[in-house]
Fold this protein.
Amino acid sequence: MTRLKCTVVTNEEQNWFVPFARHLVEQLKRVADASLVFSHCAVYLSDIVFYLGYHSIVPDDVLALGGNNVVVHGSNLPKGRGWAPLTWQVLEGHDQITLTLFEATTRVDAGPIYLQEQLSFNGTELIDEMRELVGALTISMCQNFVDNYPQVVQSATQQSGESTYYSRRIPSDSRLDPEKTITEQFNLLRVVDNERYPAFFELYGRRYLLTIEACDE
């Protein structure tokens, strides 16, 4: 029996998902010929290409190399298309997030849906803890897709309902209001990245950076 050929594509620089991508490839090697690449330019002819934590536009000729091109997005599509859906939903006060595994198309986050799973938070997790949960569930969903391939493709459902879009977050989105309490701004503190986009506030003509970490002990 011919083994599936799977390629996992992710960005290498400043990408929290890289360790999860490596782990997924090792898992897939048990049932498929799997490899990890860090650019769509390195994609070769494959049965399944997973684009995970990958933020570059993939041209049609590269998509044509995959029998199926699969993305996992952190929202209940078609709601929450676009950038940083996990962060935006936490800021909106959501404690339950839907991860959607779907087919990549030339339209952003608009392809048919294969799998959806719910992920619940207790409201205390910081960004690294949330990423750990998201990464683990992403791996599980991708493995599920491979284990049930190609039958899972036949069960695809088209996206329906109103589409909403999230914008790309920028460092200034980590701004705190010194007039508000920590409790009022705790969700923002939960989703800041201490190194890439730390929390900050401006007071008396100066800017101050804040870092946050859990220290339960």
Residues 4-166 form a domain with the Rossmann fold fold (CATH 3.40.50.170). The longest strand covers residues 66-73. Strands lie at 4-9, 32-37, 46-51, 66-73, 81-82, 96-103, 113-120, 165-166, 199-203, 206-210.
